[in-house]
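Researcher:
Attend to token order:
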Amino acid sequence: MMPPDLQQPVLLSVLGVGFATAFLHAALPTHWLPFVLVGRGQRWTLTQVLTTVAIAGSAHIVTTAVVGGLIVAAGLVVDQWITGLLPGLSAGLLFLFGAFYLGKALLRPAVLAGGPSLALSEPTVSHTAAFWGLVVMMAVSPGEVLLPIYLSQATEGPVVLTALTLAFGVGTVLGMALFTVLARAGWSVLRLERWVRYEGIILGLALILIGLLVILRPH
């Protein structure tokens, strides 16, 4: 068991990495480009777009938390059968996810020419249908990159898992909102979609770092 005076710094570091991972994950175009395109097509104001982003991002994290909770529950049951299995299992998953994202990013073609068009089009659906379409799109796709982090903290109790979920939520919504605002404001010169390559590298390194933290942490 870790001494109390060491628990808080470790917890803060885990929450910080969780926030950063969620924020970087939100850089994926699937987390902001649909809101830009639909918002332009529906003639939504910035407030309407950001409200939709906040609700859809929150739904995304709720789904992730539910799936993460199921993984944690299953992991704790297994850990009761085999003492000490859970830390190694969670670290192994973190390493695998980290290696996957690193490999995928490094093998991705360097040029994503032009990127998707942000051309303005006429609204083809009602505002309600457009809103719920975006919310459901995010709700049915839990953040798979965040799930191993839940497992790595499975034995820390509901308070830590709740704090981790809040860190995920804040990081995700802030990231989605920031990239949506930048793209909507016409900062396409930044070629935001090109950051997907670097997002994968950083995500991979972050997951491997958390895996090392799990392995090296006294139990």
